[in-house]
Amino acid sequence: MSLLSVRNLSTEFRTERGVVKAVDDVSFDLAAGETLAIVGESGSGKSVTAMSILRLIPNPPGRISAGEVVFDGRNLLEMSDAEIRAIRGNRIAMIFQEPMSSLNPSLTVGLQIAEPINLHRRTPWAAAMDKAAELLARVRLPDAKSRVKAYPHQFSGGMRQRAMIAMALACQPQLIIADEPTTALDVTVQAQILALLKEVTRAANSALILITHDLGVVARYADRVCVMYGGRIVEAGPAREIYARPRHPYTIGLMASVPRLDQEAGSRLVPIEGSPPNLANLPPGCAFAPRCRRAADICRQRPMLVRSTPDHLSACHFHAQLSAHVGT
């Protein structure tokens, strides 16, 4: 049974340019203990999907226009405001993209980690602060007991991200959503943060949604991958299957633009030409067609997400003909 089941989710924003459909008919499932990576360029709809799950879309100008988000048997979109507040930070936690802007600069890090423990678990503040120190030690922050008294500006980027992970773990959530958790961190710290996330979620049997623009980052950590483009899922399946046999030109393009250890020395990366689509004025049919080398007349019709194999979905008219080799 799925812990999280997202069905036909659509989210739109009303702007001066018209209605922007940031998430368009998105569906996926997530089991307990599983890591799902949602991959795509900036503007593909990844973060809006995550915010929609927790009903954090500001209204106005945004609204969730269709679909359902069933978590542990209940539709989050039908809950009252009080009910969804009891879920956020408690049973579902989110690690936001930029920790410096997500942490309150006027409060100590320990107080911010202790707050959800006090709020959702009714734990006295003194005990909650002790728990905050334990959590900072769990995410391998040196001298955790004294660090609870520090302010966010006294932490480095990697330390702030560890504090955000500690905050997410505070109430032992069943689901953690990590939105670009390694943005602006150097490569070594990126690897440490991703390994830590995988470790702590595995230990707690928590599900993890990892949102990123980099397929290379998730190669070691994701069980399944959803590739988004223009607000839609264009490919989905087990990570190994997608890496070995990508069936959408956009996925193939993303992989061809990432350095690989098995490439010959001197090999050139192949960029995806063009720019992401304007969500307020999407082209008819396949949104990727203007940038796709394989585009044909049939691409003026919107391709449906169909099964290439029992576990592998692709929204491309030519999914069966695409090469199994990245970059070809």
UniProtKB/TrEMBL annotation:
Its GO biological process terms? peptide transport; transmembrane transport
Q: Which GO terms describe its molecular function?
A: ATP binding; ATP hydrolysis activity
Instruction: Look up and give the membrane topology term.
Output: Peripheral membrane protein
Q: Which PROSITE patterns match?
A: ABC_TRANSPORTER_1, ABC_TRANSPORTER_2
- Is Cell membrane one of the keywords UniProt gives this record? yes
SUPFAM superfamilies assigned? P-loop containing nucleoside triphosphate hydrolases
Q: Which residues form a coiled coil?
A: none
Primary localisation category = membrane
Provide the alphabetized UniProt keywords: ATP-binding, Cell membrane, Membrane, Nucleotide-binding, Transport
* Subcellular locations according to the entry: Cell inner membrane
GO CC entries = plasma membrane
> A Pfam family this protein belongs to?
oligo_HPY
The UniProt record lists the ABC transporter domain at 4-255
As for family, the record states: Belongs to the ABC transporter superfamily.
The protein's matches in PANTHER family, at most eight in alphabetical order, are given as:
DIPEPTIDE TRANSPORT ATP-BINDING PROTEIN DPPD, OLIGOPEPTIDE TRANSPORT ATP-BINDING PROTEIN APPD
**What is this protein's record name?**
ABC transporter ATP-binding protein
Species name:
Reyranella soli
